[in-house]
Amino acid sequence: MIFKFKSWWRKRIVRRKSIDDALWQHCIQRLPLLRQFNDEEITRLRELATLFLYYKSIEATADLELTHEMRVVIAAQACIPILNLGIDWYAGWVSVIVYPQGFTPTRTQTDESGVVHEQLMSLGGEAWHRGPVILSWSDTAYAGEIDGHNLVIHEFAHKLDMRNGAANGFPPLHAHMSFEKWTKAFSQAYEDLLFKVEHNLPTPFNRYGASAPAEFFAVLSEVFFELPQMLETQYPAVFCQLCEFYRQHPRLIA
Predict the structure, then answer these.
(1) Which residues contact 183 (CB under 8 A, 6 or more apart)?
(2) How many CA atoms lie less than 13 Å away from 230 in the CB half-sphere?
(3) Which of 26, 24, 32 is nearest to 142 (CA)?
(4) Which domains does the chain have, with CATH numbers?
(5) pLDDT tens digit string along 41-67?
(6) pTM of the full predicted structure?
(7) DSSP alpha helices (H): ranges in the chain?
(8) What is the pLDDT of residue 146?
């Protein structure tokens, strides 16, 4: 009964709050990444983006003027990872905060001697466990280009990773998936990237992915949706695991 009511309510939201046709078409033209999807997938993506805009608060900081078009651009990309998972995968939090440019929060870190240090870190985005997603619009504005870098997908991949606790590169897997296969695929690929970074060798993907397993998962999620053929060539086992997790099999040709 609860499931039927939820389904009815969401269909009602989609019907009454649907993204304007002209605005949605403009969004598709603005984001080349969306052109990989067929008509049925685009329709479902639009419905998910409508629900996202209904359930989430997208607010600007400083002097950024956040338009409805900008909100749709964020929502459309945020819903790509959950296209075949559903909006409930983003349950448990509400806010998306958008800065005009990158931001520099202060972080504290305790060293081995117990001394606490304060560090300034320049960031383009951030995802908090049970908290908001923070985005820089200057980075988000170009996130839909097909170059293997997508800030929105990166931060929302963290949110999926956090569904079973702090981000660690091991999101909650579907019942049919193997923990052992996931661990083996990601561990071997992560060690390969670490080796290349430590020895100053060319790396196929963003070197930031070597900073932690959580960042590795987020970085490879970006590549999975933007340059899937490159990921399949470099780390085929990881590609297969991400196909199973996201329930998608992107074949985008840039």
Answers:
(1) 170
(2) 18
(3) 32
(4) 1-145 (1.10.472.150), 168-254 (3.40.390.10)
(5) 999 999 999 999 999 999 999 889 999
(6) 0.90
(7) 2-17, 21-30, 39-55, 68-78, 137-140, 151-161, 179-198, 213-226, 228-234, 236-246
(8) 85
